[in-house]
């Protein structure tokens, strides 16, 4: 069974695959999705919001706004910041930030796996009925 990242080909012929997109909303407002998840992963790895924003090709201002909006709607801090100086600033994920990122990753993986399995089962049933 093909999973995400596969070529979608079987025996040389292209094969249809299901794709999903997961995001979290609060009160109808989008607060957490792939963009914020990628940003938080980069903050965790690189240790600064500026470097993380550059890595995911976001402006620093836009990255700050994504985080501010998510923190305001979720009611919890996702990153801790230390202002710059001679040594420069630093950022790290809070426990809540790590938790929300983990929840997003796991839900995204589980939804994608379910969609792949369900799509394949439906296609098999369609082919059997034909």
Question: Describe it for me?
Answer:
By secondary structure, this protein is an alpha+beta fold. It has one domain: Orthogonal Bundle (Arc Repressor Mutant, subunit A), CATH 1.10.10. Helix content is 54%, strand content 15%. It is built from 4 helices and 6 strands. The protein has helices at residues 34-46, 49-55, 60-74, 95-129; strands at residues 9-10, 13-14, 24-26, 29-32, 79-82, 90-93. A two-stranded antiparallel ribbon has the order 1-2. Strands 3-4 form a two-stranded antiparallel sheet. A two-stranded antiparallel sheet has the order 5-6. Strand 5 (79-82) and strand 6 form a beta hairpin. The longest helix is centred in the last third of the chain and has 35 residues, at 95-129. It is elongated and about 70 Å long. The mean pLDDT is 88.
User: Mind telling me the C-alpha Rg?
Assistant: 19 Å
Q: Which CATH-level-2 architecture?
A: Orthogonal Bundle
The biggest sheet amounts to: 2 strands, antiparallel
The string of secondary-structure elements, in order, is EEEEHHHEEH
Count of the domains: 1
Q: How much strand?
A: 5-15%
Oligomeric assembly = single chain
Reported by name, the CATH topology is Arc Repressor Mutant, subunit A
Strand order of the largest sheet: 1-2
Distance between the termini: 21 Å
Low-confidence stretches: none
How many β-strands, per DSSP? 6
CATH superfamily: Winged helix-like DNA-binding domain superfamily/Winged helix DNA-binding domain
The helix-and-strand class reads alpha+beta
Number of helices: 4
pLDDT average, as an integer? 88
């Amino acid at each position: 069974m093909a999973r995400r990242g596969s070529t979608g080909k079987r025996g040389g012929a292209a094969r249809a695959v299901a794709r999903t997109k997961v995001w979290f909303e609060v009160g109808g407002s989008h607060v957490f999705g792939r963009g914020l998840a990628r940003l938080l992963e980069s903050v965790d790895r690189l240790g600064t919001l500026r470097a993380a924003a550059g890595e995911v090709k976001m402006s620093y201002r836009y990255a700050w706004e994504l985080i501010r909006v998510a923190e305001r709607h979720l009611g919890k801090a996702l990153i801790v910041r230390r202002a710059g100086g001679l040594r420069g600033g630093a950022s790290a994920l809070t426990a809540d930030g790590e938790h929300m990122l983990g929840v997003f990753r796991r839900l995204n993986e589980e939804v994608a796996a379910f969609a792949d399995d369900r799509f394949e089962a439906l296609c098999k049933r369609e082919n059997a009925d034909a």
